[in-house]
Amino acid sequence: MNLPSYRDRRRATAPPRFPGRAGNARRLSAAAAVAAMLLVGCDTGTPKASPHSSGPGVSLAPSATPSHSRSTFAPALTSAATACTNSSKLAGWSNRRLAMLTIAVPVSETSVSDATSEVSAGAGGVLLFGSKAPSDLGSRLTTLKSHVPGHLGLLVMTDEEGGGIQRMANLVGSLPWPAYMGAHWTPAQIQQNVTKVATKMAAAQVNMDLAPVVDVDGRNVAPSHTNPDGWRSFSGNTSVVSKAGVAYMNGLRAGGVIPVVKHFPGLGGSTYNSDFGPARTLPWSTLQKVGIPPFTAAIKAGAPAIMVSNNIVPGLGTNPASLSPTAISSELRGKMGFKGLVVTDSLSAKAISAAGFSVPAAAVQALRSGADMVLFDLGSNVSSQTSSIATAITNAVTGGHLSRSRLIDAAGHVLAVRHVNLCS
Q: Phi and psi (nearest 5°) for 298?
């Protein structure tokens, strides 16, 4: 979103033989114990989220397996227990349910109940729009989350960058433009102030912020149709942006909010604002030196999620980055080693339609390219648009245009960023 108007034996010995009647009783007792163990190992209960799934930075402990069992069945039990993964569980989901998990549904923060049907259908997240959040937003979102199938958690995201890009400052407090932070605050001050805001965001049940912006852009202007950055950037100095971006990211995490670093591979110096038309970044050769280091720093610092821009990157193909396998799979995932959640910028952007893609078609192409979650703008047809996107994704898998394994991988990243363990 660019402007305020838009958003992871040992072998047991054989049991001793027991002579006589007493031996029979012992054998029966041992058999009963083994049967009980097998039943425990085959739990088919409803998957649950980790008790810590509401915030980032929490690691899930692997399921404990008996390490001192004396039963000859121990190897098989251990194998069965360790075989369960989120991916193996997701493989049993329908294509439609998997597709829904990759969609973030836009909704007005003053009327979050409008997304109830989509959340009930399994949407992976909701994206809040607006400029003034209701005082009871937290309770409203708690009610909305109660509709999530299996109670697996929900990504509730917003654009809380600072300056003119703030959705709920009235509830969580205000931050200045990133340009001001980069010029006047130390990284420690940025982290401290952001943590204060993030703590209040988390208290209001908002667990993801589409920030920080780590584009390198030193233009001293407000963001506009022709310039997506300006004051949204911490600085025109790559080093300053790298440090400030990590500080902002850590501030959010410390407050219990998942940061989404954006807009890969960097919008600084772009020819236009992709929300309003086709736009190009600086050449890839230049971005590698100037724009990529802040993303590299964020990844090294443990960035859980990254947003990919809708700009064409000269040197990386002719499609917008959000629809480019070269940008996402080859560069971000491959060469840079990012293993977290990849989200698109709004697929409602005019740069997407100008490239010849409808929102549903763009969603399919984004997933094929390596993205995990798709975003689109709030409008009068959200329910219809959500259904169309899910249908397009499902049809693409059925028709062989999108591999089911890629869809499962994407859904897995959505669950992972919330620390959801389907095997618990």
A: -65, -40
Strand order through the sheet with 208-209: 104-108, 125-129, 155-158, 208-209, 258-259
pLDDT digits (tens, 9 = 90+) for 206-216: 999 999 999 99
Q: What is the Rg, in whole angstroms, of the alpha carbon atoms belonging to the chain?
A: 24
Amino acid symbol at 410: A
Beta bridge partners of residue 108, listed in sequence order: 129
Residue 62 dihedral angles phi and psi, to the nearest 5°? -65, 155
C-alpha–C-alpha distance, residues 337 and 341, integer Å = 12
Q: Determine the residue type at 157.
A: M
Quick: pLDDT tens for 155-214: 999 999 999 999 999 999 999 999 999 999 999 999 999 999 999 999 999 999 999 999
* Per-residue CA distances from 275 to 98, 104, 214, 351, 411 (Å): 28, 18, 18, 6, 26
